Amino acid sequence: MASLSRPFEETPMHIKKIIPLDFESTKVVPESHVWQETDGFPSNCDILQFDEENSKSSIPVIDLMAPNVVELIGHACETWGTFHIINHGIPSSFVEDVESQARRLFALPIEQKLKALRTAGGSAGYGAPRMSKFFTQRLWHEGFTVVGSAVDHAKELWPHDHQAFCDVVENYQNKMKELAGQILLLILKSLDVSEEDLSWKLPMSEDILQLNSFPACPHPESTFGLAPHTDSMLLTILHQSDKGLQIFRDGFGWATVPPIPGAFVVNLGNIMDILSNGKFARVLHRVLVNQSKHRISVAYFYSPPIESQVAPLAKFKSPIYRSLTVKEFLQMRAKHLEDAISVIRI
Ligand SMILES: O=C(O)CCC(=O)C(=O)O
Ligand SMILES: [Fe+2]
């Protein structure tokens, strides 16, 4: 949906920061991509734990068919802000197809990928993540964001053969939208509220699909795939081809979220934090890279319609956040990133 690019018009990114490195021809990690501990980069101890897959945790795995699924989801949202889902009903072929189309895209020569480059104030297309705007150091990452339809950019990437990509992406988005709606209903039930308590209606959502590429890195100990951040929207449904994702939990520190075959990861975002009056808090997460694997992840961001008002649900008698539109909140995120939510605290 074109409307989603508007929040960023007033906060354009410098074109140099949108263009990712040509990872294919890079044999060392350039100075521009080396992060220090003073930039919040993981200490050696964190990296060691990641290598040993000592995740210190048992991030909940929730069976969507379990009789007590509402209780399980509520507990996972309150404690971790992240959980795996299994028995979700999405055939594995949808996931395999979207991952293989993502690999096909990122395998294109950089000159070709640049034909679909995101514009300075835009949100759709190929490029480095928007968070790069806030850091001096660059990330070991390239992405492709689909907002609504991918057709215009896909035609640039594959002038004679864009249909397969568009079909796969559209099918995947439709499945994700349905699944995200189901998960949101379960979350609302766990808060003891119904769909009617929302000012917007469930089937409506902005469709945002983010294809992420983290190429194998010659020196993974020195760089980030994605720096610590939270996601803006209600919830994110994530498929990851390999490990790399870590989440932060108070009192535990960083915990690896290992991929479980056939499962998706669900991460709570800022709008869920607002809706639940801070009870189901946004989860801080980051991505580390590795030396041998080209990791792909596919994130579906589920959001209320961009013009709709979001506020803590009416059941919360002492709201800690003020009401605003999704669009206004995204504009704040574009300016303040992680500080946006504290700006709207009452
Ligand atoms: O690659 C991952 O595991 C996480 C991706 C992510 O955090 C994002 O796209 O916002
Ligand atoms: Fe994220």
TrEMBL record:
Which GO MF terms does the UniProt record name?
gibberellin 3-beta-dioxygenase activity; metal ion binding
Pathways involved: Plant hormone biosynthesis; gibberellin biosynthesis; Hormone biosynthesis
Give the EC number(s) listed in the UniProt record.
Answer: 1.14.11.15
Question: Do you know which Pfam families this protein is assigned to?
Answer: 2OG-FeII_Oxy (PF03171), DIOX_N (PF14226)
Could you list the residue ranges that cross the membrane?
none
- Could you list this entry's UniProt keywords, alphabetically sorted: Dioxygenase, Iron, Metal-binding, Oxidoreductase
Name of the featured protein = gibberellin 3beta-dioxygenase
Location of the Fe2OG dioxygenase domain: 204-304
Name any Gene Ontology BP term: coumarin biosynthetic process
Q: Which cofactor does it need?
A: L-ascorbate
Instruction: Identify which top EC class this enzyme belongs to.
Output: oxidoreductase
**Signal peptide location:** none
The superkingdom of the source organism is Eukaryota
Q: Which family does it belong to?
A: Belongs to the iron/ascorbate-dependent oxidoreductase family. GA3OX subfamily.
